[in-house]
Amino acid sequence: MSEEALVLRQDKDGIARLTLNRPAARNALSRPMIAALQAEFDRIAADPSIGVVILAGNGPAFCAGHDLKEMRSADYGASYAEDLFEACARLMQRIVSLPQPVIARVHGIATAAGAQLVASADLAIATDDARFATPGVNIGLFCSTPMVALSRNVSHKHALQMLLTGDLIDAPTALRFGLINEHVSGEQLDVAVEALAVKIASKSRHTLAVGKAAYYRQAELPLDEAYAYAKGVMVHNLQARDAREGIDAFIDKRHPTWCHG
């Protein structure tokens, strides 16, 4: 399969939909698929027409994690593994650093690096019957890199429960843990994801980019440094044309007209 076919992209009304396209392999993240997904996110980062990204999967699952058959065919080599996990880490960081918010549209299973994708996304909506796991412990390969994203989304005890047992958790449990925002019926999944994407896409893209970057930056800072940093962000943000347009529109009781700058 060509690299171009591994990830499908469809743009509409400021929303880019990326679809993992290895349905027969449960969208396992082979090295070529990681490269294809990285390339699409890099293109989107430089595309001012896109305000929101939806990340989905073709076939019966969202993503089953890394491609174990590929690992075995590479004879579990250290150089292969170094390249694979470095590329995966770079991909997850690209999702977080992307100016546009990313919504994971989850169905079926999201396991190991698939759960890592969900945790790395800014928002996630799943079907009622979706299942999540970091099952590496069951095959002797602890989910250490998925752990990074997971531990930044859920509490320590919930993260360790998933990591140490490898058990599948259902969508209500994932919601309770904080891994997803909501779960809906399969028939309502696209409606719910689209509604959320459209709502976010209606905002100023400049403001969204400022806010997303600031959220992740302040979360890593001590409280006093976080407030000092956030103050600077707001002072800078207030000088933007969209901030002034938004405030004027609110006072004048009209809808704002964004210039996305």
From TrEMBL:
Per the record's keyword annotation, is Lipid metabolism included, yes or no?
yes
Q: List all membrane-crossing ranges.
A: none
Q: Which domain of life is it from?
A: Bacteria
Q: Which family does it belong to?
A: Belongs to the enoyl-CoA hydratase/isomerase family.
The job of this chain, per UniProt, is described as: May play a role in fatty acid biosynthesis and insulin sensitivity.
NCBIfam families reported for this sequence: PRK08139.1 (NF006008)
Keyword set for this entry? Fatty acid metabolism, Lipid metabolism, Transit peptide
Q: Which Pfam families does the protein's record reference?
A: ECH_1
Q: What is this protein called?
A: Enoyl-CoA hydratase domain-containing protein 3, mitochondrial
Record flagged with keyword Cytoplasm = no
**Organism expressing this protein natively:** Azospira oryzae
